[in-house]
Amino acid sequence: MLLAGATLLGGCERDTLPHWLGGPRPPGMIIEGPLAEPVNPRLEALRTLGRNGMRVSIDPSFGDYGYVVDFIPRPFDCYLAPGRGFDEERHRREGCWMIAVRYTIFGRDEAPEPRIRRFRFYVPEEEYRDVVADFDRLARRWRGSDGGVLDGTSVGVEQFREGRLRSIESNAPTMFEPDNPAANMRLHVHRLLLAYGPTGAVPRNSDFTVGRREFEELPCMAQSFDEPDPDGFGAGEDACARDLARPPRLR
């Protein structure tokens, strides 16, 4: 049986083989090392993230902005307690206590000045630890995407775990792939930015699209930054509230 199997495989074209036998890798696979294409040469080197840091790069297809979020556990090169195998003594000696965040917004040609905006802030260690644990859980069972989507929001994750670097890049949404590690990381990062990041510099929508010109006539699509809104979105005097107040036949 083994000989017959070997003969059968020998007659296959390379692109028909499964990836674990030398065929092409499915899109959105976890790989060892950094992403093949550097995100932006103006960014700090990955080694500045430390042995348990992470870089998440978010690039919507139709927005005026791209985003890079660096998570840097402090003190530098500290021990990030895993969900399993927690070493209490090591955590006491060298555990992480806070997570520094470098948040960079890159404006495209359509975006107003300044084209590059940089922010620094912190998130609690336990918040980051939960995000990493969820990424680890999804990555252990992830075998790649079934396919791809033409547009969407591309997400690249470059994650260090005790000094070992692994990466994934995908533009599939959780609606199509609920277990996709990159798609879920986009939602985690959006939540952390809204909770702890600078007001007015975080997209309202979790697909991170801001400034798409052709949607200006649809103000309730929320493709804007989270500027302060005393009444709440869609209430009071904002553009969405005015649109909702119009008779349905006029919308």
Structural class category: alpha+beta
Neighbour order of strands in the largest sheet: 1-7-6-2-3-4-5
Helix content: 10-25%
Helix-strand topology string: HEEEHEEHEEHH
Mean pLDDT: 83
Q: With helices defined by DSSP (H or I, 4 residues minimum), what is the helix count?
A: 5
| Biggest pleated sheet | 7 strands, antiparallel
Number of strands: 7
Shape: globular
Beta-strand content estimate? 15-25%
Kindly report how far apart the N and C termini lie: 67 Å
Instruction: Give the low-pLDDT segments.
Output: 1-24
Using the CA coordinates, give the radius of gyration. Answer: 21 Å
Please give a handful of descriptors for the protein shown.
251 residues, globular, disordered N terminus, alpha+beta, 7-stranded antiparallel sheet
Report on the structure:
This protein has 251 residues and is an alpha+beta fold. It contains 5 helices and 7 strands; from the N terminus they run H-E-E-E-H-E-E-H-E-E-H-H. The chain has a 7-stranded antiparallel sheet. Strand 4 (98-107) and strand 5 form a beta hairpin. Helix 3 packs antiparallel against helix 4. The longest helix has 17 residues, at 125-141. It is globular, with a radius of gyration of 21 Å. Residues 1-24 have low confidence and may be disordered.
